[in-house]
Specification:
Order of helices and strands: HHHHHH
Shape: elongated
Number of helices: 6
Strand content: under 5%
Low-confidence stretches: 1-6
Radius of gyration: 16 Å
Mean pLDDT: 86
Number of strands: 0
Distance between the termini: 36 Å
Helix content: 55-70%
Structural class: mainly alpha
Length: 123
C-alpha cells in the first residue's frame, strides 16, 4: 500500500493560484522575493518551490498576525511592477497595448490581495 500524503488545506488557495499563474496575476514573483518578504515580517523561510513558499508565507503570516503587513509588502511589490510596466510602455510605445493588459491584471491582483486579507475570521 502506498503512503498517502496529506495536503495542508489553505485558506488562501485562490490567492496562491492567482500568484502562481502569470496569466491571471500579470506579474511573476520569484521564490527569492517571497523569501525576502517572509524574512521582512520575521518568518524564517528557506528556498523551496514558489507554490510552497507562497502557501507558507500567507498561512504563517495569518497565524502570526502579520497578514496585513504581508499584504502591504506584496502590494508594494505589485505596484513596483505596475510602475515598471508604465515606464516600459512610455519607452516602447509599440508594446503599450500588451503592457496595459499586464497592468490591468496586476491591478486586479492588488484588489484580490486586499479582499482576501479582509476575509471573515469566522469562516
Amino acid at each position: 500500500m502506498r503512503k498517502q500524503e496529506r495536503s495542508i488545506k489553505s485558506k488562501f488557495t485562490a490567492l496562491e493560484n492567482h500568484f502562481l499563474n502569470t496569466f491571471f496575476s500579470g506579474i511573476y514573483i520569484s521564490a527569492n522575493e517571497f523569501i525576502h518578504i517572509g524574512n521582512t515580517i520575521g518568518l524564517k523561510m528557506s528556498m523551496n518551490s514558489r507554490e510552497l513558499l507562497i502557501k507558507e508565507l500567507l498561512n504563517k503570516s495569518d497565524e502570526n498576525g502579520t497578514l496585513n503587513q504581508t499584504v502591504t509588502l506584496l502590494n508594494e511589490l505589485v505596484q513596483d511592477r505596475i510602475d515598471k510596466y508604465n515606464s516600459l510602455s512610455m519607452d516602447y510605445p509599440n508594446s503599450a497595448k500588451h503592457l496595459a493588459q499586464l497592468t490591468q491584471k496586476a491591478n486586479a491582483t492588488k484588489s484580490l490581495l486586499v479582499r482576501e486579507s479582509q476575509r471573515n475570521p469566522y469562516e
